[in-house]
Structures
1.
Amino acid sequence: MLQELIGLSILDLMTDVNRVACVDPENSLEHALLVLVKSGYSAIPVLDRSGIVQGTISKTLILDSILGLERIEFEHLGEQKVKDAMNPNVTKIRPHDGFVRALELAINAPFLCVEDDDGRFIGILTRSSMLNRIHRSMKTEMHSSYRPTSS
Ligand code: 2BA
C-alpha cells in the first residue's frame, strides 16, 4: 500500500482550475466576499490575468481589513482591493514534487496551489482529496488481508 501511495499522481487528485473558485488581485473586497459566500469556501486562490497565483483571500482576512475601532465598517468593502488584503504566502506544489511532499505541505495548509513548470496555476490539491485517497487504499488493504477463520 505504501508504494501505491508514494506513486500517486498529483494531477489525478487535483481539482482542475476550471472548477476552482478564484478572484483577481484587482477585484474589490466586496466582489471577493460575494464569491466566498456564494461558493461556500472559507479561502480561495487569487489569480492574476496571466494565470499566476498571487495569494489567497479568506473571509477572515476581508473582515479584518474592514475592522474599525468599534465595528466592522462594511461601507469600505467596495473601496479596498483584494491585493491589499490577501495573504501572499501561498503553499504551492508542482506535479513532479510527488504525493509525499504534498501530504507534508497539507499538514499546515487546507489546500495546495498546483503549478505547471512555467509557474502557471493549474488547480488545487485539497486535504479532503488526499485523505479520501489514503482512506480508499487503507480500506482495500484491510479487506484483502482479512481472512475469516473457519470453525
Ligand atoms: P474550506 O472552505 O475551509 O472547507 C473545508 C472543508 O469543508 C472542505 O475541505 C470540504 O470538505 C468542505 N467544504 C467546504 N465548502 C464546500 C463546498 N462548497 N462544497 C463542498 N465541500 C465543501 P477540502 O475539500 O479539503 O478543501 C480545503 C480547502 O480548499 C477549502 O477550505 C477551501 O479553502 C479550498 N477549496 C476547496 N475546493 C475549492 C474550490 N473548488 N475552489 C476554491 N477553493 C477550494
2.
Amino acid sequence: SRRDNAPDAFWMPFTPMRAFRQAPLLFERAEGMHYITPDGRRVLDGMAGLWCVNAGHGQARITEAIRAAAGRLDFVSSFKMSHPGAQAYAARLADFAPEGIDHVFFVNSGSEAVDTALKIARAYHQARGQAGRTKLIGRAKGYHGMGWGGLSVSGIGRHKAAFGPLLPDVAHLPLPYDRASMAFSRGRPEGGLAAAEALETLLQIHDPATVAAVIVEPVTGSGGVYPPPKGYLERLRAICDQHGILLIFDEVITGFGRLGSPFAAQAYGVRPDLMSCAKGMTNGAVPMGGVLVAGHVYDAFMAGPPEAIELLHGYTYSAHPLACAAGLATLDVFAEQDILGQLGKALPLWEERAHRLKGAAHVVDIRTAGLLCAIDLAPRPGADGARGGETNTLCLDAGVLIRNAGDTLVLSPPLVIAPAEIEEIFTTIEQALGRIG
Ligand code: PMP
C-alpha cells in the first residue's frame, strides 16, 4: 500500500546516506505512462517524471542507444575535441529548432543552460563593443533553475530569499495574467499587446542601452502554467528588436514537444535569439541541457576578440557521449512514432476535459497550454497549500501522480497519453476534490 511505501514525503531534498528520516516514494521501474513500485503497484505518471519524459517511459530505442554508446566511447572532452555523436546530434537539433537557430552549446541541466544563456547574452554585447549592456530582465513567477544566474532572474521569491545577495542589475516584468479577466480562458487569453507594454515601461526606468537580455519562459511552468496572452511574445520580440536587447526563451519545459510543436518558438511563431533547453532533450534518460543560439549570436562571437569565445568555456561533461546518443535517439523516436502528430490528436480532449473541472469543489481557475494544465484551488482559510497537498496525496492513493505548487495542481504527462488516461487523471482529481474539506 502507499502507506508502506510512501508515508508523507514526495520530495526529498537529500538522500539519506545512513538512516531514512522520512521514507521517499519508491519507484523501481517505469514503462509507457506508468511508474511501478517495488511491490508492483502501477501509478499513472501525470508529470512525465518532472516535465521531462515526454515520449513516455522506457522507450527501447533510447535505452539501446545509451547502451551502445556506453560500449563505444565513455568520455571525450569538448575542449578542442568532439565525437561523431555530438556532431550528429547538433545537426539534428538544428533541424528540430526554429529556422535560423542553428548552433548549440551543450551543458548538463536546465540550470546550467540558463546560466550559460545569460553569460552568452552579456558576452555577445561585449564582443560587439557594447560592454555597458549588462542588465537582465526576468519576469514574475519565472522559474529558471537553481544556479546563481537563474535564481537572480527568477520571479519566485521564496526560492531566492535564503541566498541573497544575488546578481545586481536585474529587473522583473509583471506576469501577463489578470485573474479577474482571464480566469478559465481556454487556450490563450486576449490582451497580450497591452501586457507587453510593461517592458516599455521598465525601459523608461532602465536605459535600454544598459540592458543585455530579457528572459522569459514562453509558458510560465513551475510558477503555475500561465500561457502567454495573444500578441504578448510578438510584442516582447518587437520591443527587444527596437532596443537591441536579446530575447531568451527558457524552453526547458516547453521544448521537445510539450506544446505540440518542437519548441514554443514554433508554436507561437516568435523566434528568440537564444533558447535554453534540457529535460525532454534526452527524454529524461541522461542529464543534458543545451543553449540553442541564432546565427547572429554565434557570428558575433566568432567575429569578436578570441577571448570572448574562449572565456565561455564548457563543462567537463558538455556533449557527453551518453547524453548525445540519448538525445539523437529521442529525436528519432519523435520522428518515427510521430509523437507530435499523436499529441495533436490528444490536445482537444485534454483541454476540453481539463476545463470540465470548472465548477468542481474549490476550483477557482484552470489554465492549459499544450499538454500542460494548472488548476488553482481556493486556499483553505488559515492553511495555505493544504488543499493542494491533500488533493495530491489522494490522487497518489488512487494511482495518479500529479504535482502541487501550494494550492495549484499541475499536470504535465508524457505526450503519448491515451484518451482513457486523460479521463483517468481528471476523474481522479475531481473525486479527490470532492473528498477534501
Ligand atoms: N528552467 C525552467 C523553465 C525549468 O522548468 C527548469 C526545471 N524545472 C529549469 C530551468 C532548471 O532545470 P534543471 O532542474 O535541469 O536544472
3.
Amino acid sequence: MAGKLLELKDVSKAFGAHKVLDRISFGVSAGEIVGLLGPNGSGKSTALNVISGFLPSDGGEIRLQGDNITNVSAQRITGHGLVRTFQLPSMPHRMTVREVLQAGASGNASLASMLKPFRFDDELDELLESFRLTHVADLPASALSGGQKKLLSVATALRSKPKLLCLDEPTAGVHPNLRSDMVTILKRYRDKGVAILVVEHDMLFIRELCSRCVVLDRGEIIADCAPRELEDNARVVEAYLGKAV
Ligand code: ADP
Ligand code: MG
C-alpha cells in the first residue's frame, strides 16, 4: 500500500467483548473517493472515529501521508490535514451559519469574530450558495434542520481545505435534489486533489461518487472493489445489499 494518503493496517477496536473492528486493512489514495459501506452497527462510524483520533484503537497502525497517526489526538490529526464530519452534527450555540463557516472546522468562535469584518469572502459565499444555505446564513446554526446541519458540516469541512475528508452519512436527512448537488461539489474538490472517505447508504450517491467501496460486516472487510462490482459479490448481497439496513 506504499504511497497511499491514508493506510490502515490490521486496525482493531472492541467495546468490551464486542470486536467491532477486527484487524481491518485498507487505504485511500490522494484524489480518490472511497465509500465505506456496511449494515447498521457494522463499525463504520467507529472506523472513522478511530481514524480521526476520536477513539483510541486497540491495535494496528494508521498512517496519513506516511506519518504514524495511530492514537494521536484528534486535534493533531486535523493539523495533518484530516477533517471529518459526524453522523449527527452538533452546532455551536450563539454562532450563525456564516460564522460557523468562517471559523472553519475548528468551530472557533473567537476566530469567527476576528474574521467578521471580512464580509466579502467569495469562497464562503460560494459555499453558502452551493449548499443552498444563503437564505439561512444569518440564522443561528443550532436552529437549522437536521439536513441543513449536515450540509453546513460538509461545507465547513471543505472550507478548512483538507487533504483527506471523512464524511459520516453526509446525505442522511438531506433532500434528494441536494444529494446530486453534493456529488458535483465533492467531485470538484476531488479534482483539486482532496481524498474523500465517505460512509453512506444511498447506492445511487455511491455509484455516482466513488471509485472504490470498502464493505464492513461483523468486524471484517468483506469487499474492497468498484461500486459496480458490489452487486455481483454474493457476500455483499447477503450481508448488506439484499437486506433492509
Ligand atoms: P455503524 O456506524 O456501522 O452503524 P457503529 O460504528 O456506530 O456502527 O457501531 C458499531 C458497533 O459498536 C455497534 O454495535 C455499536 O453499538 C457499538 N458501539 C459503538 N460505539 C460504542 C461505544 N462508545 N460503546 C459501546 N459500544 C459502542
Ligand atoms: Mg454510523
4.
Amino acid sequence: QKKSKDNLRCPVVCVLGHVDTGKTKILDKIRRTNVQDGEAGGITQQIGASFFPIDAITEKTRPVMELHKVEYNVPGLLIIDTPGHESFTNLRTRGSSLCDLAVLVVDIMHGLEPQTIESIGLLKKRRAPFVIALNKIDRLYGWEPHPELPVQQALEMQADSVKAEFQQRYDFAVRQLQEQGLNACVFYENQDVRTFLNVVPTSAISGDGMMDLLFLLSTLPAKMLIDKIMYHENLECTVLEVKAIEGLGTTMDVIVVNGKLKEKQKIVVCGLEGPIVTQIRSLLTPQPMKEMRVKTPYIHHQEIKGAIGVKICANGIERALAGSNLYVVGEDDDEEELKDEVMKDLGGILKKVKKNEDGVYVQASTLGSLEALLEFLERPGEDRDGNPNPPIPVSGIGIGPVSKYDVMRCGVMLEREREWEAYACILAFDVPVLPDAERSAKEIGIPIYTAEIIYHLFDAFTKRVADIKA
Ligand code: GTP
Ligand code: MG
Ligand code: NA
C-alpha cells in the first residue's frame, strides 16, 4: 500500500509547558473531563494520551471553520499530556520525542518560565512545529467570556481596557519568544506559518480559544507535515508506561504511531533483565475523548491502526520498560535480531539506575516515575535560602508495589556501618505497600515512606536524618 494524501493518520500532538500553566485543564475543558481535579497536589506526574475523533472536533469548532473556510483532512488528533514540574524532564523528552506537533502552553500572566524554555529546546532539537497557547486570558481584568465565538471575535467584544491589557501582555510574551530566537504572531493574523509561530489566546476555565486551538491543531499538520502524517504499515510503537491494573494484571500503555497491532501477535519489548517476548492477550482503548490514565470502561479491539494510544495486556511484562520500542515478530522476522534491537534502548536508562553501595532503596510505579524520582534525588532542588539541597544516594530500585523481596534487599543496609543508618529505608513513590512487606519491614526495622508527590519523599528523608542526628 502506497503512502498518500488520501490516507492520513492522526497527528500525535504533545502538550508541553511550565508547571501549572493549564495543560491538563485545557484537555479537560475540551474532553469535558476532570482529570486535573483528581491529580495529587494538582500536579501531573505521568504521561496521558487521549484520542479526539474528527467528528467531535468538527462539532466543537464549526464557527471557526466557517470563519476561515477550511475543512479537515486528518482523521482526528492523538493528544499527549505531559507534566510541567521540573523533575519530569524525562517524561517531557519522551512525550516530545513521539510527537508530530506540539502545543506549548504559556500562562499569559507569567510569560515564559524555566520549563517553557526547556520545552522550546526539546522542540527545536526535534524540529517539531508547535503552537503557543497563551492561556488564562480569563484572568485579564474584566474579561467577558465568549467561548461560543472564535477567539478573535471574543477579543473584539472586550472593553478597551481588557484589549489594552491583552495587547501589552501579548507583546511581552512575543518579545520573550524573540529572545529565544522565535518569531511569533497571533494565528488569525499570521500570513506565514513557516516563519511565525502561531499564538492562540485561550482560557481553560471560560473555554475561550478552545475551538481555535483544536482548529489549528487539525489544520496545521496538512499544511506543514503532510508527508509525515501519511499512514504507512511499518510498525512504529513505543511503550509509554507499564502498570498493574486491577482485574487486568500488568498492562502496557503504548502509542502506535504507524502500522497495526493485532490480538495474539507475538511481540518483543525491552525488560530490566533482558528482552521480553510475549503474546498480545488483549488490546484495549479508553472511550474517545477519555484518557488512558483514568478508569473508564475499556473498548476491546481485535486490531488497531496508528496513530492511537492502546493498552496491551500480556503475560510476563512486569519488568518491561517504559520508553522501549515494541516490535512484532512476524513470520519472516528474525526473533534474535529483534531481541538485540529492542535492548539497545536500555543503555541510557541503566546508566541512571547506576547503583551506589550506600544509599536508600527507592520504589516507583513505573519506569517513567522511577526515572523522575532518581533524577529528583540526584538534584533535589533548593532549600528556603536558595542553597542546593544535598543529593540522596540510591543503592537499590524496584518497580511496582513494595514487596517483601524489596524489604529484604533494602535490609542489607542495616548490616553496614552506623553512619549509613539513615539509608536503611524505602522511599516509595505512588505505589502501595503489600501487607507482608509491611510486616517484615516492622520486624527488621526498615521504615517505608510513601508519597504521591516526589518531593514529600525528600522531606520525609530529611526529617529522618535530622531525627537520627538528634
Ligand atoms: P502540571 O501538569 O502540574 O505541569 O500543570 P498543568 O500545566 O497541567 O496545569 P493544570 O491544568 O494543573 O492547572 C493549574 C492550575 O491553573 C489549576 O488550579 C487550574 O484550575 C488553573 N488554570 C488552568 N487553566 C486556567 C485558565 O485558563 N484560567 C485560570 N484562571 N486558571 C487556570
Ligand atoms: Mg497537568
Ligand atoms: Na498542575
